[in-house]
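Folding Problem: From Residues to Backbone Shape
Fields: amino acid sequence; protein backbone structure tokens
RECORD BEGINS BELOW THIS LINE
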Amino acid sequence: MTPARKAPRIGIRAFAATWWGQTWVDALEASTLDAGRLSRGRTYARKGMVGPVTAAPGILRAEVEGSAPWPYDAEVRLRVLTDAQWDILLDAIAVQAGRTAALLDGEMPADLVDVARTAGVPLLPEPSELDPECSCPDWGYPCKHAATLCYATATHLDDDPFWLFALRGRSKDAVLAALRTRRQAHTGTASETGGAHRTPGMPARGAFASWNGMFTPPAPAAPEGAHDDIDTTPPPLTTTPPPGSSFTLDDLEALTRDTAQRARRLAAGHTATLICTPLEDAVRLAATDVSQGWLHNLALATGLPPLAFARLVRAMRHGGPAGVAAARAPFTPDPAAMAAARTALADPDHTDNTDGTLRLRAWRNRLTADDEGVQIRLGPDNRWHPYTREGRAAAAEWWPCAPATADPVAALLAARTNSITSAGSVMKQRQSG
């Protein structure tokens, strides 16, 4: 087992207790020259002005208190690993049992990080990878609230190095399951070549199915974010809520249906809803065709303006959780992905751009054709989310308008088609009026 390399606790740069936590802090502090905002971020973190930190593939989130009477929404994004990079990393862990043992013991093996880096797999972040965002008006990069989130994250990394794996795209359970698969494959090979005889097991799915016939394995789930057409309606409830309750029997039945649907999706391997923030869960519920009363109450509970909440609900329906992320905030994408999209969109055979009139403005993960009022956004799922500008003149805003797709050309076409359809509807309304 590789021993933990302790970081110094003396000086303004000391904030983590382990070498990998300190590497995270070093990446933050090397990404900016603004010592003042970093100092305030450290102070905020030490004062406990940051709320619970959630880690999802490619993103950290937390509410951070500031000078305003309400907290700010701070985020820090980190590029997820590709499947090929994950294979390299998992093979490097599996080749030495001590590395898995170290991780389970709360330690990050230094030799694992070195081997992965040599193979081109960045487990620990480089300074250029951390991409902060915040709802505050400060244009600092990072602002003090995003810096607070980064410093607070160092403590979580100290306690559980699997946080880094989650940020890079895979949960602790997913990593351990992949390591078990590799170990079983290795054991099977050894048995075939003369190893000790082992009693064959059976997949967990089959084991559940054979348990007195009481469990039916879930059918293949739809893509994350899509509507599940499988009937998961539970039996109707018969016990009414106590008099004076703020909820009705219909409310309880709706929540029970939602719970059943989520349970089925979790059993099929979709775990995104386990790490939803309250806002994301409210948007998810509102996107399931709830009643107007529910929709109003959900929007009210989030504190968002009704139109802003409605925009996120539409983003959820078109693109799932990744669509909501694309609607909430921009991020710095892989430059190669943006360059490939611009090359494809410049081809007149693909976009009907025979006269060269398609002018795209690129900013962060967004490509915008201002003169057409259309836009496509690259989401954290590597799909393109179509948008159109809706509303009157100066009050017009960007709204999700069609399902996300991996093809930027198809996304642009969908946005154009929706824009034309919307314009035709407005014209008919004016003529009929």
User: Anything to note?
Assistant: The mean pLDDT is 76.
